[in-house]
Structure formats: structure tokens, C-alpha cells
Amino acid sequence: MTAAPAQSARPAKLPREQDPRNPVARLTALLDEGTLELITPDDLSGMLAVRGSIHGAPVVAFCSDATVMGGAMGDEGCEVVVKAYHVARQENVPIIGRTARHSPTSSSSAPRAGSSSPARTWSAR
Predict the structure, then answer these.
(1) Is residue 80 in some structural domain?
(2) Residue 6, in any domain of the structure
């Protein structure tokens, strides 16, 4: 008697709009309600840049898109980050960057040494 092949326990992939790794969802959660304004298009570049505010203070933010190539960033993604920095400098506001947030079942989702979260946030003036 032959055993049936084991089936993968991998969950079904969520539509991008419902995926919690979607940068629009992540940046919407970071910014004050209703303040998110796209600087770059929500495309497949692997990055997204936006304007918004946090506690009423204007900011520019960018976020990697883990729904695209697991958050890998190529030339187009780099251009998004550069554009975000240009806008932040031009408007003289802080900039915030968020890295990819992986699936909770991913081994890379464990906090790194010295970090309380796998998604690191930084700000510079």
C-alpha cells in the first residue's frame, strides 16, 4: 500500500488589497486618518511613497511592498525612495521609511537583535 503524497500546509494567497503587507494598508495605519496622499503610483515597483501627517505634523513616508517579490527592491523601487527624500527635503518635513513585513509564519518575521519589531521605522530631518 502506498501513502498519499503530503499536501502543502501553505495558506491560500490573499488578494493584494487584503494582504496586511500591502504598503497602502501599512502606511494608512501609520498616518493620521484620511491624510494619506500618494507621491508615487501604487504599482509593482516594490516601494510606495506618500505624504500624510502623524498627530497633525506633516511627514513623507515610504514603505516596501512585501506583496511584490517578497519586498525585494530594484531600480524602480530605489527611484521611489529617492523621490520621497526629494519631496521631504523640498517640503522640509521628516521622512519615515518602513521595511518589508513578512508573513507571520516566515522565519524572517522574528525580531532582530536590538529590535522589537521585524518592520523597522526610522526618521530623519
Answers:
(1) yes
(2) no
**φ/ψ (deg, to 5) at 116:** -90, -5
Q: Domain of residue 90: give its range.
A: 18-101+118-124
pLDDT at 101 over 60: no
pTM: 0.70
Question: Please, which pLDDT band fits residue 118 given cuts at 50, 70 and 90?
Answer: very low
- Cα dihedral 42, 24, 61, 74 sign: negative
What is the total count of domains within the chain? Answer: 1
In a domain, 73, yes or no: yes
C-alpha cell of 63? Answer: 514603505
With a cut of 50, say whether residue 71 has pLDDT above it.
yes
CA proximity to 31, closest of 66, 69, 57, 67: 57
φ, ψ (nearest 5 deg) of residue 3: -75, 145
CA-to-CA separations, 103 to 10, 19, 54, 118, 121, in angstroms, rounded: 11, 10, 26, 11, 18
Question: Residue for cell digits 503524497?
Answer: 5
